[in-house]
Amino acid sequence: MKYIIVGNGVAGMAAAEAIRGRDAAGGIHIYTEEEYYHYSRPRVIEYLGGLATPDKIVIRGPEYYAKLNIQLFRGTAVESIDTAARTISTRAGVDSFDKLILASGATSFLPPVEGCRSDCVFTLRTIADADRILARCASGKRALVIGGGLLGIETAASLAKRGLCVSVVEVFDRLLPRQLDADGAALLRTMLERQGLAFLLPKKTAAVRPAGEGADVFFDDGSSAGADLVIFSAGVRSNARLAAAAGIACDRGILVDGHMETSAPGIYAAGDAAQFNGVVYGLWPAAKEQGSFAGRNAAGEPALYQGSQLSAKLKVSGIELASLGAIGEGPGIAVATKRGEGTFRRLFLSGGRLAGAILIGDTSSFVPLQRLLKSGEPIADPEAL
Ligand SMILES: Cc1cc2nc3c(=O)[nH]c(=O)nc-3n(C[C@H](O)[C@H](O)[C@H](O)COP(=O)(O)OP(=O)(O)OC[C@H]3O[C@@H](n4cnc5c(N)ncnc54)[C@H](O)[C@@H]3O)c2cc1C
What we know:
Layout (H helix, E strand, L loop, with lengths): L1 E5 L3 H13 L4 E5 L12 H5 L13 H6 L2 E4 L4 E5 L4 E4 L2 E4 L2 E4 L3 E3 L12 E2 L4 H11 L4 E5 L3 H12 L3 E5 L12 H13 L3 E3 L4 E7 L2 E6 L4 E4 L1 E4 L3 E3 L2 H5 L8 E3 L10 E3 L4 E3 L7 H15 L12 E3 L7 E5 L7 E8 L2 E8 L2 E8 L5 H10 L10
Parallel strand pairs: 1-2, 1-7, 2-3, 7-19, 9-16, 10-11, 10-16, 11-12, 18-20
Antiparallel strand pairs: 4-5, 5-6, 8-17, 13-14, 14-15, 21-22, 22-25, 23-24, 24-25
Bound molecules: flavin-adenine dinucleotide.
Flavin-adenine dinucleotide binds next to helix 1, helix 2 and helix 8.
């Protein structure tokens, strides 16, 4: 059996490991556009902030690929898939497969804003992106991060650590609109302001116009701000173009069933590239889980994926923050809040069971709450948790 995996991120790597655990002799070829061996994408934040070097965030070096007898093609983009001939093409030639796994990840989204392709505009997804941002930091000191989600805040905090003067722009009237409610967001904002970050919100970015060595960023309320570098952190889009061009069904991501199989038999998708049950997770643990399920199924072991948990932790030193499950009030949702000295915990319960949680200042109950969320166990007294 011969397997090809497009993507060397956590989904692709988990798929390869699952295959090798079940098929000792099959050929495994992994293709990646990047030059690095498998590294931790979340830890790119540490590299940007000067807390780690690229070699420190590499998880699997060449010896690991050799041990698992995996052939890795670095810096090699897969350009097309022929589902009938069961081949993929790269600039180097054609490679054939029995089973194909599409773990091509996602690309940072650049909203259609005037000037968003200027030299001083960046996004952050890869080590190479961080290198480009750091090169710019050498000559500029004012950064504007557009997007107050997890990645935007972490990017801003990393640049502040590098000594830049950083402002975060958010279209909503609060930070982390997907992970926090209004109270949690207000507390987080105060903590980040104490670390030197400034916030412009709610503000919708309308244009980026060159000004000297940097740019003036204009907002739709008529105000503007000057910056030497502008980083858009406005979400990601699944890399599904390759699959769509091959006739594989796609929506926002590559559509998969519970076996992580696409509309083309024997072709699977996983991670940020895949859409399962209407969801593109965009999270490391979910990509790992999906990759593992895709690998198991590709290797002939039927395994049914039933979805992953939505949970996230903020990676800003000095600030403990985690959010899990469905947060937000509404009909049938009970809320239990506990405030302490610098801490805030809010649990959201539906039908007496945990639906979601926000933890700020103390995240020690994150793992037990994750377990509770997964098990769906009834909670008699939320205050006692
Ligand atoms: C800075 C940063 C911080 C993050 N922090 C967190 C966090 O704290 N917690 C969390 O849960 N998630 C976090 N995420 C999200 C998480 O990193 C992703 O969900 C996860 O890495 C997705 O893994 P993946 O394998 O699906 O895709 P990726 O890691 O994006 O890997 C995709 C791979 O596909 C390759 N590829 C794409 N197209 C082609 C092609 N045509 N030919 C060949 N190769 C191709 C790429 O080169 C790459 O190797 C963060 C993301 C970023 C950018």
